[in-house]
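2 proteins. here.
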Amino acid sequence: MYTLRTKFCQPTEPQWRDAGHFLSTKLPLPMRAWLEDTGSLTARLRKKSAGQFSVRVLNQAWALPHFSERELLEMGEREWGLVREVLLCGRGEPWVFARSVMPARSLVGDLRQLRQLDSRPLGPLLFNTRSMRRGGYQFCQMPVAMLSQDIVGGDEQALWGRRSRFDLRDRPIMVSEIFLPAFQP
């Protein structure tokens, strides 16, 4: 059912910074609206793709998250989490690389269902949970080389991304989203 993995599509982590670090002038205007949007990215991508939206699962396995992910989720140094990497596709093109980290302690009770999302998007489950609270954004501008070449494509030198922590009934989950070259805001 699950494997234990140490190799993922995002083998190293970008340098995440609080959103305030990136002055409005540093963020490309068309991308800024997408990075700063507080609603469901899944819902927004569905609309932009005129319903031609899909999720392609790349990896889902128990693993040690990156250091900053463990820090954001207040996980112990050796605490494992369920790491899920997917492509959010619009019109058949990979638009967003998304990585979610779910500590084992978060996947109990009614949230146990998050262990078996398959190709369903995580967004609707997060945004349809009444007790959901979302923390502030962190942004990154990362070199294309930090992602597996199989999923990037395009000539972009750097990719923009965002991440935030969600708390569902006081159980943390982290979601990071990297906009890929095929995505045109």
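next one coming up
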Amino acid sequence: MTPFNEAQFASRIESHIKRCRPGDWEHCQRVVKWVKELGEGREDLPLLIVAGYVHDLGWRDTVKDKLTIDELLKLESKANANTTPNVKGLLTELKYSSEDIQTVLRLVHTAYEHESTQDDEAIIVDADNLSKLTIDHLREKYKQENWEKTVNHWESELSSRIQTEKGKQFWPKLLEELKTKIRSS
């Protein structure tokens, strides 16, 4: 197998991700940062990184503007239905093996179902959730008048999804930092 070249992979998929929601390209880069933090030293890290980049590809060509949390929740099932064909098509085009595509699809589905049963799944779910806890994420993706409601939703829904030990350590601190930044903006 050819060694994974993340920079080359990212440059090949950037235009696809930029056709998703506003801020999805920046979000997926933050997800990958967390994947590397939570999955450090894992043999399967390259496929986790791929999943981190493509996990929101179902949103491609669905919306053009920032959303409220309510709008996102209404559109989520449509985006989730688009995920498998979009990810499979892109990874097939990039000459990924059927086995690797199935692994990435399993990880991506776990990210949007928010339920993990395996360690690699917990990493992608946690990376996706932790990456949201920044003021940049809110600025890039959500209407400002809805930030507080969005963060309240995350606090009630997302905290129970965090499974990795590192994720459990980072979650409360990141959430409090984000709340402080919202109050001061």
